[in-house]
Design brief:
The complex is a heterodimer.
Chain A: H1 16-32, H2 40-52, H3 57-68, H4 72-94, H5 112-115, H6 119-122, H7 149-152, H8 161-173, E1 180-189, E2 194-195, H9 197-206, E3 216-223, E4 226-231, H10 237-253, E5 257-262, E6 266-268, H11 270-275, H12 278-288, H13 298-308, H14 310-313, E7 319-323, H15 332-345, E8 348-353, H16 366-371, E9 377-380, H17 384-395
Parallel strand pairs in A: 4-5, 4-7, 7-8, 8-9
Antiparallel strand pairs in A: 1-3, 2-3, 5-6
Helix pairs in contact in A: 1-2, 1-4, 2-3, 3-4, 8-10, 10-12, 13-15
Chain B: H1 10-19, H2 26-37, E1 42-45, H3 52-62, E2 67-71, H4 78-81, E3 83-85, H5 87-97, H6 103-110, E4 116-118, H7 120-125, E5 134-138, H8 145-157, E6 159-162, E7 166-169, E8 175-180, H9 188-192, E9 195-198, H10 204-214, H11 220-235, H12 244-256, H13 264-274, H14 278-287, H15 289-297
Parallel strand pairs in B: 1-8, 1-9, 2-5, 5-8
Antiparallel strand pairs in B: 3-4, 6-7
The chains are: A alpha/beta, B alpha/beta.
């Protein structure tokens, strides 16, 4: 990026009051650019301006950046935003007043839970019996509904659009559960674990100095994080929309899920899915993803994931799901290498293949052959029943990584 | 010092960090200066090995004060970060008082400061030092979100509340440096309380300056070749791009080997200093070390 011209930015002729107003406007401007600004920041900028002065635009810009930026992209993109706003300011300065500023209320915090209410899943003509025992989370497994039996085994790829609507409702109604992992934080416990000295001392006090009763602490339990990588290339056309619906449902049902789609390259869609109802989310994903229904380069896409995201997303025992038919037009040695790396980084690497639902299917494509040696589980994902199967696998994952010595632990018999 | 401030100016920050062999560009120096004047914590993000932790170390030495370091990890909690009661001592005290121990009175006795074990965060605001210490909260992204919530009170008001004692406030706030490798996103509430700075991988000039400051024995020609080679290496498609820490390790290795200038064989032998993934080493070997060395040496 070219260095911004050393113009007289910000306008140095302004008095303190109009300066603050200009700074508040600047904050609003940045908010429009996706910065999460708060009211204290313009105040900080006034204080900063007093400390570094306004004589050097560069110093002032650096100061403003340290106050408003909150991520590398904002940090790097700040100069441009700064320049754009303050260049506009000069026109204002020469002519019109800065204008009345209505202070923005602090950004409303949208409650995630509220947005989880997917109306499509509740109403409708499908008679579904939702397991009505939400109080006991531990026992609720994925099979918390009983849809029309034929729909359960209907291959997504062969369903009519009517049936697809019903299937999507049923997917949205699926309840997900993923095996927990032991977190490092401790919480009070009734069973023996580590001594809770703080409580022991307190009770000893009450007992007049005799440590009569022991109290315990044990590690907290947290659900495992999950990453979903979904192939939306041309060969997956029959399934990709359903799989996005599935990703959407997973994200709403579990606490920590990251979703990506790929064709020729990888796109992160976590936020699109998180912030929108399923239909809107689908529309936005198809809009934001350029290679929807184009060729596949699985290896390249995984490569992108491994470089950019793996260290950030897989450090805490994450389960990784790849949904793809394994038709790879790229270099399969790249795919094999990236799968090896991915499996090493993941707690569990599960490959979901919609074609595996067809009885005559054999995973013979070069891509599938390259990937399989580094897959922990190889499962179909072609109908609701297969999603249930996946659900019970996720809920019942054991506490340790699968043994990967001497090949993968693939339940699917070698063809 | 004449004004009573830690730093006189941005230039002052830059030159005093320079004296500690820390090469800070003007943007970073500005932020450090502001952090000191506005009494706001400084959140430093950047790839591993770009010198985030070093900022705190250099600052502490430049300010001639203590560095109090809190290394974060998954599961870190109030007992490890802020304070813990000295339970053994409390129990002994209760026992020693025996029958005469009065619960009402005793509470005040055994929850006094002499029974308190101070962990880094408490120490940083409740200290006997001449000048306020530098508090380094290292790799905050390794902790859980619960821990971030715990930090909010400290970072906003430089005070800590202990239920049994009350609120302890800092007389003079410490200089707070928080680092993150971005393995996860830091919560907005915490970011807002801090000034933010992203430390990028260095340019050739900056890396050369760092090499001169940190590996003084390195012949100038070799230092230049090392800096140039690093730029080319970072352009390669790697799982883990080497940072400045790796450059310095490598430079020291070259120095130990008595290598007068960069040659493909030496690079080959010392590649493990720079690349910690076998895939990356294979990739670079396949890409052609000789050509990379040639281009770096030709400059």
């Amino acid at each position: 990026m070219a260095a911004p011209p050393e113009s007289n930015l910000p306008p140095s002729g302004l008095d303190g009051d109009s300066l603050l107003r200009a700074f508040v406007e600047f904050g609003h401007f940045l908010r429009g650019r996706g910065y999460s600004t708060v009211q204290t920041q313009p105040d900080d900028l006034v204080r900063a301006a007093a400390v570094v002065g306004l004589s050097s635009p560069t110093d002032f810009r650096n100061a403003a950046r340290s106050i408003f930026a909150g991520s590398p992209s904002q940090f790097v993109g700040f100069d441009e935003a700064f320049e754009e706003f303050w260049l506009g300011r000069r026109i204002v300065e020469s002519g019109m007043p800065l204008g009345g500023i209505t202070p923005h209320p602090a950004r409303e915090y949208v409650d995630d839970e509220m947005m989880l209410l997917d109306t499509g899943a509740r109403g409708g003509s499908v008679k579904e019996v939702v397991d009505s025992d939400p109080s006991d989370d531990e026992t609720v497994r994925v099979a918390a509904y009983s849809p029309v039996e034929s729909l359960r085994h209907m291959d997504f790829g062969y369903a009519t659009s009517e049936e697809l609507i019903q299937i999507r409702r049923l997917i949205a109604a699926l309840r997900w559960d993923i095996a927990k992992k032991r977190a490092r934080r401790l919480r009070p416990a009734s069973r023996p674990g580590l001594l809770d000295m703080r409580r022991i001392v307190r009770s000893t006090l009450r007992q007049g100095g005799e440590p009569a009763r022991l109290f315990w602490r044990r590690p907290k339990i947290k659900p495992r994080p999950m990453v979903l990588l979904c192939d939306i290339s041309g060969s997956m056309e029959l399934y990709s929309r359903i799989l996005i619906t599935f990703a959407h449902a997973l994200q709403r049902g579990l606490r920590d899920v990251e979703s990506f789609v790929f064709g020729t390259r990888l796109t992160r869609v976590t936020w699109v899915l998180r912030d929108n109802q399923v239909d809107e989310a689908l529309r936005r994903v198809s809009k934001s993803v350029v290679d929807w229904s184009s060729g596949t380069r699985i290896g390249q896409s995984l490569h992108q994931f491994n470089r950019t995201w793996a260290r950030r997303k897989l450090s805490r025992g994450a389960v990784v799901l790849i949904a793809s038919d394994g038709w790879d037009r790229g270099d399969v040695t790249v795919l094999a290498d990236e799968m090896r790396y991915l499996q090493r980084s993941a707690f569990r690497l599960i490959w979901l293949n919609p074609l595996l639902g067809q009885p005559e299917y054999q995973p013979l494509t070069l891509g599938m052959q390259a990937a399989l040696p580094n897959v922990d589980d190889f499962l179909p994902v072609h109908n609701l029943a297969s999603l249930e199967q996946l659900g019970s696998l996720l809920a019942g994952l054991s506490g340790s990584r699968p043994s990967r010595v001497g090949g993968a632990a693939i339940p699917y018999p070698a063809a | 010092m004449t004004t009573g401030h830690a730093f006189e100016s941005i230039e002052d920050v830059q030159s005093r960090l320079g004296l500690q062999n820390y090469v800070a560009d003007r943007a970073l120096a500005t932020t450090v200066f502001l952090s000191s004047r506005l009494e706001k914590p400084l959140l430093l993000e950047g790839e591993a090995g770009v010198g985030k932790t070093e900022v705190a170390r250099a600052l502490a030495t430049a300010l001639d004060t203590r560095l109090i370091r809190l290394q974060c990890y998954e599961g870190i909690d109030v007992n490890h970060a802020v304070y813990e009661w000295n339970y053994a001592r409390q129990l002994l005290h209760i026992r020693a008082a025996g029958e005469g121990f009065d619960e009402k009175d005793g509470l005040g006795q055994i929850y006094g400061r002499e029974f308190l074990i101070r962990r880094p965060l408490l120490e940083s605001i409740d200290h006997e030092l001449q000048s306020p210490p530098v508090l380094l909260i290292d790799e905050i992204d390794r902790s859980d979100d619960e821990f971030e919530a715990l930090l909010l009170e400290l970072l906003a008001d430089f005070q800590i509340t202990i239920p049994e004692i009350g609120t302890i406030a800092a007389r003079v706030p410490p200089t707070v440096i928080i680092t993150s490798n971005r393995t996860r996103e830091i919560h907005d509430a915490l970011k807002r309380r801090c000034l933010y700075h992203w430390i990028d991988l260095p340019s050739v000039e900056k890396e050369l300056a760092i090499l001169r400051a940190r590996a003084p024995g390195l012949p100038d020609r070799l230092a230049r070749q090392v800096a140039e080679f690093m730029q080319r290496l970072r352009d390669e498609d790697l799982y883990k791009v080497p940072g400045i820490a790796e450059t310095l390790d490598w430079a020291r290795a070259l120095l130990e080997l008595g290598c007068p200038e960069l040659d493909p064989d030496t690079v080959e032998q010392t590649l493990t200093c720079l690349l910690k993934h076998q895939e990356d080493q294979l990739h670079v070997r396949a890409a052609g070390i000789e050509a990379m060395v040639g281009r770096a040496a030709g400059v």
